[in-house]
């Protein structure tokens, strides 16, 4: 595959649903082998070259193995565990000699000592050619700042980050820290663009929250009615974002996402659409 030009925000295929029934609105559950094959075919058709997985996504890494060498793979390991051992385990499951990126998962749950050990473990993975980039998956600005501090203390470059952002979660929209990191070459990935599907559902559970209802009304009035395109147009406009990772439960869903991505109005949504309810925008509170 030919990779897109650097500096162009691009889609990354998430694989959490490959190994478990991930997602607040996932009615399908863990995906079948045939569904995964169809999703990969659509990804290939649309030129998606990046894939996101993790050691704790059930058996997602093993199921990605037939195609892992055709993608730039980002995987995640537990910040409190033995990073070197986990990286080797991931490579064995994926059937590859190296990956594009390794991120530290559960960063907020690790103490300072564990964080420093984990960062040094990532440095060894990069210096020995097991990964091209190393970074952290975090939830908010304090998480970003703590990651920067930990890498600075270790005198190592922070070259990758994964953060949540969507039309309702606006905490990082204007982050000067993320902007500076992106300018310095850090590859920043947005996750939760659809808030695990809550922003695309018409009703039920958190989709009935008044902040979600307000978003739906705005999307139908000002963005042509497509909830998917409204969500994607917003995250595409984030100035510091390099990738947006999305998970789907079918090939048709991925086709819809790709079509919406291509046709979306690329502009930040009005700030008044943002929600200040942490029980809605932070999945850790669900």
Model description:
- With 286 residues, the protein is an alpha/beta fold.
- It has one domain: Alpha-Beta Barrel (TIM Barrel), CATH 3.20.20.
- Helices cover 39% and strands 15% of the residues.
- It has eleven helices and eight strands.
- It has an eight-stranded parallel β-barrel with strand order 1-2-3-4-5-6-7-8.
- It is globular, with a radius of gyration of 18 Å.
- The N terminus is likely disordered.
Attribute tags:
8-stranded parallel barrel, 286 residues, disordered N terminus, alpha/beta, TIM Barrel, 11 helices
The helix content, as a percent range, equals 25-40%
Strand order of the largest sheet: 1-2-3-4-5-6-7-8
How many discrete structural domains? 1
Task: Please compute the radius of gyration using only Cα atoms.
Answer: 18 Å
Binned strand content = 15-25%
Can you summarize the main beta sheet?
A: 8 strands, parallel, barrel
What is the CATH architecture assignment? Answer: Alpha-Beta Barrel
Listing every helix as H and every strand as E from the N terminus to the C terminus, the arrangement reads EHHEHEHEHEHEHEHHEHH
Which structural class matches the secondary elements?
Answer: alpha/beta
The helix count comes to 11
| First-to-last CA distance | 39 Å
């Amino acid at each position: 595959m030919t990779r897109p030009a650097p500096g162009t925000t691009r889609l990354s295929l998430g694989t959490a649903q490959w190994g478990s029934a991930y997602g607040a609105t996932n009615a399908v559950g863990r995906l079948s082998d045939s569904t995964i094959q169809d999703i990969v075919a659509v990804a290939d058709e649309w030129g998606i070259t990046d894939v996101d997985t993790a050691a704790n996504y059930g058996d997602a890494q093993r199921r990605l193995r037939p195609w892992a060498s055709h993608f730039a793979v980002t995987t995640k390991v537990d910040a409190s565990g033995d990073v070197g051992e986990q990286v080797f385990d991931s490579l064995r499951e994926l059937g590859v000699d190296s990956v594009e990126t390794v991120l530290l998962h559960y960063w907020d749950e690790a103490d300072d000592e564990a964080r420093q050990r984990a960062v040094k473990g990532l440095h060894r993975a990069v210096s020995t050619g097991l990964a091209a980039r190393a970074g952290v998956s975090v939830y908010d600005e304090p998480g970003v700042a703590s990651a920067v501090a930990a890498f600075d203390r270790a005198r190592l470059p922070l070259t990758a980050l994964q953060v949540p952002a969507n039309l309702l979660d606006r905490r990082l929209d204007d982050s000067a820290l993320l902007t500076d990191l992106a300018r310095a070459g850090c590859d920043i990935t947005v996750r939760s663009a659809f808030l695990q599907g809550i922003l695309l559902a018409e009703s039920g559970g958190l989709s009935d929250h008044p902040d979600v209802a307000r978003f739906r009304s705005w999307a139908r009035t000002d963005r042509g009615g497509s909830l998917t395109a409204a969500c994607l147009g917003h995250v595409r406009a984030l100035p510091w974002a390099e990738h947006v990772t999305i998970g789907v439960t079918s090939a048709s869903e991925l086709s819809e996402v790709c079509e919406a991505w291509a046709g979306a109005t690329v502009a930040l949504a009005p700030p008044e659409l943002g929600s200040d309810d942490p029980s809605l925008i932070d999945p850790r509170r669900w």
